[in-house]
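If you are new to this repository, start here. Below is one unmodified record pulled from the training split, so you can see the exact layout before writing a loader.
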Amino acid sequence: MRTKHVLAFVLLAGALGFAQAQKTPLRPPALPNPQLYPTNANAADEIREATADAGKGHKRILLVFGGNWFMDCHVLDNAFHLPNIAPLLNSNFVVVHVDIGKYDKNLDVAKQYHVDLEKGVPSIAVLNSDGSFVYSTAEFERARVLSEEDVLQFLNKWKPQPATAKK
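And here is the target side for that same chain:
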């Protein structure tokens, strides 16, 4: 009987340890990119370029609204480069960083894509490869408390669906 209890405890501890490892909060980069959100970029031009690229590769577009001054924007971008996330992101999405300045730039672009900047940044709009709107969220505004699994779930949910063969 004692062996069953020990085995149950070991299995439970292992499962909890695995679950905890999966929920480790995202971290900031060692050196934040001071130009992650290019201050002189023309958002409309960058979105047009992303649409052309996305169309060629059957990808969706992620418009990531934020600012160089906000650490959670750097935390999310750092997550995009992690070994468990980068392959999924790069094979399914084209990312455009849209600078919002100090909440005084590209507000019209945010509004166009139903991004409520009052909820915080980084905020994301998901677009189809033709540039049409799919979804927007501010769920990453506290990226520091999210995990790799949270980012993976989001990307898997919004990645493009495989093309179906026509009969």
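Two things worth knowing about this chain: The two ends are 61 Å apart (CA to CA). The longest strand covers residues 60-66.
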